[in-house]
Protein backbone atom coordinates (compact mmCIF):
# COMPACT_ATOMS: atom_id res chain seq x y z
CA UNK A 1 0.00 0.00 0.00
CA UNK A 2 1.47 3.40 -0.83
CA UNK A 3 0.77 6.32 1.47
CA UNK A 4 2.11 9.82 1.82
CA UNK A 5 2.89 10.03 5.47
CA UNK A 6 2.87 7.45 8.24
CA UNK A 7 0.05 7.12 10.73
CA UNK A 8 0.49 7.72 14.44
CA UNK A 9 -1.40 4.97 16.22
CA UNK A 10 -1.47 4.87 20.02
CA UNK A 11 -2.52 1.89 22.11
CA UNK A 12 -3.74 2.74 25.61
CA UNK A 13 -5.19 0.61 28.39
CA UNK A 14 -4.70 -0.46 31.96
CA UNK A 15 -1.78 -2.70 32.94
CA UNK A 16 -2.32 -6.36 31.99
CA UNK A 17 -4.69 -5.50 29.14
CA UNK A 18 -2.22 -7.03 26.66
CA UNK A 19 -1.02 -3.76 25.09
CA UNK A 20 2.59 -4.71 24.73
CA UNK A 21 1.90 -8.10 23.13
CA UNK A 22 -0.58 -6.51 20.74
CA UNK A 23 1.76 -3.67 19.80
CA UNK A 24 4.49 -6.13 18.79
CA UNK A 25 2.08 -8.24 16.74
CA UNK A 26 0.66 -5.17 15.03
CA UNK A 27 4.06 -3.94 13.92
CA UNK A 28 4.80 -7.36 12.42
CA UNK A 29 1.44 -7.67 10.65
CA UNK A 30 1.66 -4.17 9.18
CA UNK A 31 5.23 -4.68 7.94
CA UNK A 32 4.16 -8.04 6.46
CA UNK A 33 1.58 -6.05 4.48
CA UNK A 34 4.30 -3.66 3.27
CA UNK A 35 3.08 -0.87 5.52
CA UNK A 36 6.37 0.36 6.97
CA UNK A 37 5.89 0.55 10.72
CA UNK A 38 7.99 0.99 13.83
CA UNK A 39 7.26 0.30 17.47
CA UNK A 40 7.69 2.92 20.19
CA UNK A 41 6.76 2.89 23.82
CA UNK A 42 6.41 5.41 26.60
CA UNK A 43 8.07 5.79 28.96
CA UNK A 44 11.08 5.30 26.68
CA UNK A 45 13.49 4.07 29.32
CA UNK A 46 16.53 4.28 27.01
CA UNK A 47 16.89 8.06 27.25
CA UNK A 48 18.23 10.27 30.06
CA UNK A 49 14.77 11.17 31.37
CA UNK A 50 13.75 7.54 30.82
CA UNK A 51 16.44 6.36 33.22
CA UNK A 52 15.17 8.72 35.92
CA UNK A 53 11.59 7.59 35.32
CA UNK A 54 12.56 3.94 35.46
CA UNK A 55 14.35 4.53 38.76
CA UNK A 56 11.27 6.29 40.16
CA UNK A 57 8.96 3.45 39.08
CA UNK A 58 11.18 0.66 40.41
CA UNK A 59 12.27 2.21 43.70
CA UNK A 60 9.15 2.96 45.73
CA UNK A 61 11.25 4.67 48.41
CA UNK A 62 12.29 7.31 45.85
CA UNK A 63 10.45 10.50 46.71
CA UNK A 64 9.85 12.90 43.87
CA UNK A 65 7.31 15.71 43.74
CA UNK A 66 4.22 14.59 41.76
CA UNK A 67 4.43 17.55 39.38
CA UNK A 68 8.13 16.93 38.79
CA UNK A 69 7.62 13.29 37.79
CA UNK A 70 4.67 14.28 35.61
CA UNK A 71 6.88 16.75 33.75
CA UNK A 72 9.60 14.12 33.38
CA UNK A 73 7.16 11.72 31.71
CA UNK A 74 6.12 14.55 29.41
CA UNK A 75 9.74 15.54 28.70
CA UNK A 76 10.36 11.91 27.78
CA UNK A 77 7.77 12.30 25.00
CA UNK A 78 9.17 15.67 23.89
CA UNK A 79 12.63 14.07 23.70
CA UNK A 80 11.19 11.74 21.03
CA UNK A 81 9.07 14.35 19.24
CA UNK A 82 11.47 15.24 16.43
CA UNK A 83 12.31 11.61 15.68
CA UNK A 84 8.61 10.71 15.56
CA UNK A 85 7.83 13.63 13.25
CA UNK A 86 10.62 12.68 10.89
CA UNK A 87 9.58 9.03 10.73
CA UNK A 88 5.94 9.92 10.11
CA UNK A 89 6.79 12.50 7.45
CA UNK A 90 8.96 9.91 5.74
CA UNK A 91 6.06 7.51 5.42
CA UNK A 92 6.76 5.29 8.42
CA UNK A 93 3.78 4.53 10.65
CA UNK A 94 4.24 4.27 14.39
CA UNK A 95 2.56 1.95 16.83
CA UNK A 96 2.99 3.57 20.22
CA UNK A 97 2.52 1.67 23.47
CA UNK A 98 1.12 4.44 25.79
CA UNK A 99 1.33 8.19 25.14
CA UNK A 100 0.18 11.48 26.69
CA UNK A 101 -3.09 9.95 27.88
CA UNK A 102 -1.28 7.53 30.21
CA UNK A 103 0.68 10.51 31.45
CA UNK A 104 -2.46 12.47 32.23
CA UNK A 105 -4.36 9.49 33.64
CA UNK A 106 -1.70 8.26 36.06
CA UNK A 107 -0.85 11.77 37.33
CA UNK A 108 -4.28 13.39 37.51
CA UNK A 109 -5.69 10.72 39.84
CA UNK A 110 -3.11 11.61 42.48
CA UNK A 111 -4.13 13.80 45.39
CA UNK A 112 -3.82 17.53 44.69
CA UNK A 113 -3.10 17.01 41.00
CA UNK A 114 -5.34 18.94 38.66
CA UNK A 115 -6.44 17.46 35.33
CA UNK A 116 -6.09 20.74 33.41
CA UNK A 117 -2.61 21.27 34.76
CA UNK A 118 -1.63 17.74 33.76
CA UNK A 119 -2.82 18.27 30.18
CA UNK A 120 -0.74 21.39 29.52
CA UNK A 121 2.76 19.93 28.95
CA UNK A 122 1.28 17.58 26.33
CA UNK A 123 -0.06 20.42 24.18
CA UNK A 124 1.84 20.63 20.88
CA UNK A 125 3.00 17.03 20.75
CA UNK A 126 1.89 15.17 17.62
CA UNK A 127 -1.79 14.26 17.77
CA UNK A 128 -2.38 10.54 17.19
CA UNK A 129 -4.47 9.69 14.14
CA UNK A 130 -6.05 6.97 16.22
CA UNK A 131 -6.03 5.95 19.87
CA UNK A 132 -7.17 2.40 20.49
CA UNK A 133 -8.25 1.88 24.08
CA UNK A 134 -8.03 -1.74 25.17
CA UNK A 135 -10.65 -2.27 27.84
CA UNK A 136 -11.26 -5.06 30.32
CA UNK A 137 -14.06 -5.39 32.84
CA UNK A 138 -12.85 -5.11 36.45
CA UNK A 139 -13.63 -8.80 36.84
CA UNK A 140 -11.46 -9.89 33.91
CA UNK A 141 -8.76 -7.38 34.88
CA UNK A 142 -8.57 -8.85 38.40
CA UNK A 143 -8.37 -12.42 37.07
CA UNK A 144 -5.41 -11.75 34.78
CA UNK A 145 -1.98 -12.90 36.05
CA UNK A 146 -0.54 -10.67 38.80
CA UNK A 147 0.94 -7.21 38.61
CA UNK A 148 4.67 -6.61 38.56
CA UNK A 149 6.48 -4.82 41.35
CA UNK A 150 6.56 -1.29 40.05
CA UNK A 151 4.86 1.75 41.49
CA UNK A 152 1.22 2.20 40.28
CA UNK A 153 0.73 -1.55 39.75
CA UNK A 154 -2.21 -1.98 42.10
CA UNK A 155 -5.93 -2.49 41.62
CA UNK A 156 -7.14 0.82 43.09
CA UNK A 157 -4.91 2.91 40.88
CA UNK A 158 -5.73 0.87 37.76
CA UNK A 159 -9.46 1.30 38.35
CA UNK A 160 -9.10 5.07 38.59
CA UNK A 161 -6.89 5.18 35.51
CA UNK A 162 -9.51 3.18 33.63
CA UNK A 163 -12.10 5.87 34.40
CA UNK A 164 -9.87 8.65 33.07
CA UNK A 165 -9.29 6.66 29.87
CA UNK A 166 -13.03 6.18 29.48
CA UNK A 167 -13.56 9.93 29.78
CA UNK A 168 -11.03 10.51 27.01
CA UNK A 169 -12.75 7.87 24.88
CA UNK A 170 -16.12 9.59 25.41
CA UNK A 171 -14.84 13.05 24.52
CA UNK A 172 -11.99 12.81 22.01
CA UNK A 173 -12.69 12.40 18.30
CA UNK A 174 -9.73 10.11 17.59
CA UNK A 175 -10.48 7.34 20.13
CA UNK A 176 -11.91 3.88 19.58
CA UNK A 177 -12.65 1.35 22.33
CA UNK A 178 -11.64 -2.27 21.78
CA UNK A 179 -12.75 -5.03 24.12
CA UNK A 180 -9.50 -6.79 25.04
CA UNK A 181 -11.12 -9.81 26.66
CA UNK A 182 -10.89 -12.16 23.62
CA UNK A 183 -7.99 -14.34 22.49
CA UNK A 184 -4.75 -12.63 21.51
CA UNK A 185 -5.47 -13.38 17.83
CA UNK A 186 -9.08 -12.15 17.95
CA UNK A 187 -8.09 -8.88 19.63
CA UNK A 188 -5.20 -8.52 17.18
CA UNK A 189 -7.53 -8.83 14.19
CA UNK A 190 -9.88 -6.18 15.60
CA UNK A 191 -7.03 -3.74 16.21
CA UNK A 192 -5.47 -4.42 12.81
CA UNK A 193 -8.76 -3.77 11.00
CA UNK A 194 -9.15 -0.39 12.69
CA UNK A 195 -5.57 0.60 11.94
CA UNK A 196 -5.61 -0.37 8.27
CA UNK A 197 -8.84 1.48 7.74
CA UNK A 198 -7.37 4.58 9.44
CA UNK A 199 -4.21 4.41 7.31
CA UNK A 200 -6.34 4.27 4.16
CA UNK A 201 -8.38 7.22 5.39
CA UNK A 202 -5.59 9.64 6.32
CA UNK A 203 -3.79 9.57 2.93
CA UNK A 204 -1.60 12.66 2.86
CA UNK A 205 -3.43 14.82 5.41
CA UNK A 206 -1.04 16.96 7.49
CA UNK A 207 0.03 15.92 10.96
CA UNK A 208 -1.91 17.66 13.71
CA UNK A 209 -0.87 18.82 17.14
CA UNK A 210 -2.36 17.77 20.46
CA UNK A 211 -4.64 20.34 22.03
CA UNK A 212 -7.11 19.91 24.86
N1 LIG B 1 3.08 6.03 33.11
C1 LIG B 1 3.33 5.92 31.78
C2 LIG B 1 2.91 7.26 33.71
O1 LIG B 1 2.68 7.36 34.91
N2 LIG B 1 2.99 8.38 32.93
C3 LIG B 1 3.26 8.33 31.60
O2 LIG B 1 3.33 9.37 30.93
C4 LIG B 1 3.43 7.03 30.99
C5 LIG B 1 3.72 6.93 29.54
O3 LIG B 1 4.36 4.25 33.85
N3 LIG B 1 2.28 1.95 35.19
C6 LIG B 1 3.09 4.83 33.95
C7 LIG B 1 2.14 3.74 33.54
C8 LIG B 1 2.83 2.46 33.95
C9 LIG B 1 4.28 2.86 34.14
O4 LIG B 1 4.75 1.90 32.01
C10 LIG B 1 5.27 2.10 33.29
P1 LIG B 1 5.07 0.52 31.23
O5 LIG B 1 4.26 0.62 29.98
O6 LIG B 1 4.60 -0.58 32.17
O7 LIG B 1 6.55 0.50 31.02
TrEMBL record:
- UniProt xrefs under CDD domains: TMPK
**PROSITE patterns per the record?**
THYMIDYLATE_KINASE
Q: Which InterPro entries does this one have? A: P-loop_NTPase, Thymidylate_kin-like_dom, Thymidylate_kin_CS, Thymidylate_kinase
Q: Which UniProt keywords apply?
A: ATP-binding, Kinase, Nucleotide biosynthesis, Nucleotide-binding, Transferase
* The enzyme's E.C. designation: 2.7.4.9
A Gene Ontology molecular function term of the record = dTMP kinase activity
Taking every annotated instance into account, which residue ranges of this chain make up the domain Thymidylate kinase-like? 11-190
Per the record, the pathway is: Pyrimidine metabolism; dTTP biosynthesis
User: Domain of life, per the record?
Assistant: Eukaryota
Which one GO biological process term can you cite for this protein?
nucleotide biosynthetic process
Question: Where does the sequence pass through the membrane?
Answer: none
What does the sequence similarity comment in the record state about its family?
Answer: Belongs to the thymidylate kinase family.
Recorded hits in HAMAP family, A to Z, give:
Thymidylate_kinase
Q: Which PANTHER family match?
A: THYMIDYLATE KINASE (PTHR10344:SF1)
Name of this protein = Thymidylate kinase
Species in which this protein is naturally found: Cryptolaemus montrouzieri
